[in-house]
Design goal:
Largest sheet: none
Distance between the termini: 26 Å
Structural class: mainly alpha
Oligomer: single chain
Number of strands: 0
Length: about 200
């Protein structure tokens, strides 16, 4: 996969590489949008807007990425568009639980969320969190993003993101029907932090 690398030399090269970016990250952008807005129609609209905006700024993003993956950049665009979506429509996220099985399965919680009722409890709880905490949990558990990717997507430091995730999980524990499930999520994050720390030392 050639997501970054050398700067494209022609418009055809730009288009080819952006098409690859689109195919690679379409599912993540759509899943993120769906978790934010709660229904497929608006999620499709946000996903289309995200990639249209990304295409307009793609060459600049390539220059400024310094070889880093562009997924956090795409999710940040979707994040900003979703925020505008709520401001423009003065609406809260819907809870499209009945269709939850149609989106991509959470990368890191497949073994934790065994049934639809458990998934419903988690999604209901997440939707009640403050915006920044909800965002962090969606990125971590729905998209499988690590702390550094989340930090880039949210424009925060690694340390602030770690604190944000910790507080989000603790708040979610008090909302879901089965606290042990949220505790397992917390342990999963703790393990990922340890692995991330060991990897980057």
């Amino acid at each position: 996969m050639v997501e970054n690398g050398a700067h494209p030399s022609s418009k055809a090269d730009v288009d080819a590489r952006f098409t690859e970016l689109y195919r690679t990250h379409l599912r993540d952008v759509y899943s993120y949008s769906y978790y934010r807005v709660g229904n497929h129609h608006d999620a499709e609209d946000l996903t289309e807007q995200t990639f249209l905006q990304a295409y307009r700024h793609y060459e600049r993003a390539l220059r400024e990425s310094n070889g880093r993956p562009l997924r956090p950049w795409l999710i940040r665009i979707a994040h900003n568009l979703a925020a505008n979506f709520y401001r423009d429509r003065s609406r809260k996220p819907e809870s499209g639980i009945e269709d939850a099985g149609m989106i991509s399965a959470p990368h890191t919680t497949e073994s934790l969320v065994e049934g639809r009722e458990e998934l419903k409890a988690i999604l209901d709880g997440v939707q009640q969190l403050p915006d920044d905490r909800r965002e962090a949990l969606i990125m971590r558990f729905a998209l499988g993003m690590d702390n550094r990717e989340i930090a880039r997507a949210l424009g925060r430091t690694d340390g602030a993101t770690k604190v944000l995730l910790h507080r989000a999980i603790r708040q979610l524990e008090g909302m879901v029907a089965e606290p042990a499930m949220a505790e397992s999520m917390a342990e999963s994050v703790a393990e990922s932090k340890t692995e991330s720390g060991d990897h980057h030392r």
